[in-house]
TrEMBL record:
Main location: membrane
Domain SEFIR: 389-543
PANTHER family: INTERLEUKIN CYTOKINE RECEPTOR-RELATED PROTEIN 2, INTERLEUKIN-17 RECEPTOR
Cellular compartments per GO CC: membrane
PROSITE patterns attached to this UniProt entry: SEFIR
Transmembrane segments: 351-371
Keywords annotated in UniProt: Glycoprotein, Membrane, Receptor, Signal, Transmembrane, Transmembrane helix
Bilayer disposition of the protein: Single-pass type I membrane protein
Pfam families: SEFIR (PF08357)
Protein's name according to its UniProt entry: SEFIR domain-containing protein
A GO MF term: interleukin-17 receptor activity
Length: 676
């Protein structure tokens, strides 16, 4: 393995040679450049032991910007095409530099990591400033030194050259951190390769230095709180792929359980339109945005929390708290359409041309085709606008882990392909300290649509049984159904004429293909609510979510492979565990006494009302005003005979052993009323 470490000003060579085994020999070279700021590291493995003896001067790393610029002008095209993904991989990270003396403040360096996979003899790095609100950013605002030395502005440039690339075993690696970053500045970093004559281009930015680095935050405030409430990442965008845009971020090792949300806005003229918001998995470090139209976009990367907002309006700016976020601007110069979509468009165009030719040369065949089409007429696909982001709250029961994973797969499809923000307990409560009930009430009220997914576990809950809790949050199914019934009752009383529209627009029932349709009770199917069989009717579900008629099929490109795999896993799990539902049900408590002791209401024997003379005697004895002599005996006895009704029954218990029992009684009463 060959290591080369270097810095700006001074060079020294140290060569070490190791013989590790009779049939495997490799060499390791160290080139150190002493500098507190800049350092590059190259790691290469020679092909065999003979070649390792002759590669002492194989690598040259150039730190001089002018020499790098001249070499790139000779070897590279002015605007080279983009490299394929398998040629090289580029990632970025931040390096926090703390001061080692007085009168110094911390700052952040950009670390560039490159993996070269194919024969490439020269790699060029060039940093270009795009925008910088901070006037102290020398890369963007201070170019006097460049004009004084070279007579023109040359953006910082570095390059690595291999004199004998055919002796190198691929891949090899290059790490370089020297470019200093300023808060909110946007940079374009180009990585160019020769002799392949291709390039990679990225947009890079960071938020406040105290947000991107907990180390710098502790430098300014040693006692301050550190966590995802105060952190947002370094972000970069890869614009070099043909069919998608990659939005990536630097993961923070100390916040491994933090989920990042990506909100994308499109800027047209002076206004911005929210396109979508997607919350990434904990292990994900990037978001793939497919089928992107040309335009100007802004992406916000932030930790989504309930106690803050991404954007505050002018009316709520006094009481609104902004979430720490990283904002990155980028421009997509041409449409990035996936291969499947391109083939679909090309196929449609080809069919159109062939159809036109048939109409020109064979009118009779065209008429016959027209008549056949009329006979076999189908409802045409309706183009439904998905430009507006909508929200849906999905409520389900945790029947088993495969079932919950299937619901999560469905939610991800709606987020990625249907322009829908999904409120799901698995996404927001597993790693959150938010109170579950508060979260439920907030999301239920905020969601434009609420979908209840029925299953065998939901049927058990409706029968008054309970499931063993396996998640770090309780079941919300019975609560959600109670709230739906409450809204139904209010609408029947207040606005019976608008019941059909309001109920069908906001609420929907669904069941998965591995569950029978009977999991939805007949009493509930009589409500004016749409019912979807998933994933078969997911296109109709998307239409309903975007306030279109649910019987309209939407022509949207959706990758259903993950959802179908999740459905197959549920079917396989149930086949191997035929008693899975019985294992999930809570057993009744044994050897326990009653939860409360019923007691009779204290009884007191009846007592006759005092006569008028007795009342006067008592008043005189106690020095009180005597009673009104005009009060009639009939009035007194009429008051004595008033009968008051007790609420409830002596058999009722004053306490409940389960928080959901009252909800289940409410549901059972509603279902019984529907049957009657």
């Amino acid at each position: 393995m060959l290591h080369i470490n270097s810095a700006k000003k001074r060079t020294s060579f140290r060569i070490k040679y190791f013989l590790t085994a009779p049939f495997y020999i490799y060499s390791m070279f160290f080139v150190d450049y002493t500098s507190a700021e800049c350092r590059e590291e190259i790691k290469v493995l020679p092909r065999n032991s003979y070649e390792s003896k002759i590669i002492r001067n194989l690598y040259i790393f150039e730190n001089d910007t002018q020499k790098c610029d001249e070499a790139q002008s000779m070897l590279m095209l002015s605007r080279a095409p983009f490299c394929d993904s398998h040629d090289l991989n580029v990632t970025f990270s931040s390096v926090a530099v703390l001061p080692n003396g007085t009168n110094m403040l911390p700052y952040v360096l950009l670390n560039v990591s490159i993996r070269v996979n194919s024969p490439i003899s020269s790699v060029f790095l060039r940093l270009e400033c795009l925008e910088a609100p901070n006037l102290e950013d020398d890369y963007c605002h201070n170019h006097e030194e460049q004009y004084r030395r070279w007579g023109r502005m040359i953006w910082p440039c570095r390059f690595l050259t291999l004199s004998k690339p055919d002796l190198v075993s691929y891949p090899y690696f290059l790490n370089y951190h020297c470019f200093r970053l300023s808060s909110y500045s946007h940079y374009r970093l180009n990585v160019s390769c020769a002799p392949n004559l291709c390039r990679k281009s990225f947009i890079v930015t960071i938020p406040e230095e105290t947000q991107v680095s907990p180390t710098i935050s502790r430098f300014y405030d040693k006692d301050g709180a550190i966590g995802d409430n105060y952190w947002s990442p370094l972000a970069f965008v890869d614009l070099t792929l043909r069919d998608k845009v990659i939005i990536r971020y630097e993961r923070q090792p100390s916040l491994i359980a933090t989920r990042i949300s990506v909100a994308v806005f499109e800027t047209i003229a002076s206004s911005s339109t929210h396109l979508f918001t997607n919350t990434l998995d904990i292990t994900a470090a990037e978001y793939e945005w497919k089928n992107v139209r040309a335009g100007n976009f802004t992406a916000y990367l932030y930790v989504s929390r309930l106690d803050c907002n991404l954007i505050c309006s002018n009316s709520t700016v006094d009481r609104c708290i902004l979430c720490p976020s990283t904002r990155i601007h980028f421009t997509v110069e041409e449409d990035k359409i996936s291969l499947a979509a391109s083939i679909h468009g090309l196929l449609f165009h080809r069919i159109y041309v062939i159809g036109a030719a048939v109409l020109c040369f064979a009118f009779a065949i065209a008429v016959l085709f027209f008549l056949t089409t009329r006979r076999l007429h189908r409802v045409p696909l309706q183009e439904v606008s998905l430009s507006q982001r909508t929200t849906v709250f999905i409520v389900y029961t945790d029947d088993c882990k495969p079932h919950s994973d299937c619901i999560a797969a469905l939610a991800k499809i709606l987020q990625h392909d249907a322009n829908v923000d999904v409120f799901l307990d698995q996404f927001e409560l597993k790693y959150s300290e938010t109170l579950p009930l508060r979260w439920f009430i907030s999301k239920f009220a905020a969601a434009s649509h609420v979908m209840l997914i029925f299953s065998e576990g939901a049927g058990a809950i409706l029968r008054g049984e309970s499931l063993i809790q396996q998640q770090p949050f309780p079941e919300f199914f019975s609560v959600a159904l109670n709230m739906l019934i409450t809204e139904h009752s209010k609408d029947v009383t207040r606005q019976p004429g608008k019941l059909l529209t309001e109920m069908s627009l906001r609420f929907a029932f669904a069941y998965m293909t591995y569950s029978p349709s009977s999991v939805i009770p007949e009493e509930l199917t009589s409500l004016p609510i749409n019912i979807f069989k998933l994933p078969e009717q997911i296109q109709n579900l998307i239409s309903w979510l975007h306030n279109q008629p649910s019987d309209i099929y939407v022509d949207v490109c959706i990758d259903m492979s993950h959802l179908k795999s999740a459905v197959d896993e549920v079917v396989e799990y149930r086949r191997k565990n035929p008693v899975w539902l019985a294992e999930r049900l809570q057993t009744s408590r044994k050897n326990s006494g009653p939860f409360c002791t019923l007691q009779n209401v204290p009884f007191q024997s009846s007592r006759s009302v005092l006569t008028h003379e007795e009342q006067v005697h008592i008043a005189e004895t106690l020095n009180l005003e005597p009673p009104d002599i005009h009060t009639s005996t009939e009035e007194i006895f009429s008051e004595e005979n008033v009968i008051f009704a007790l609420i409830g029954s002596p058999d009722d218990s004053s306490s409940d052993t389960d928080d959901s029992i009252s909800d289940k009684i409410h549901l059972q009463q509603f279902l019984a009323a529907k049957q009657n």
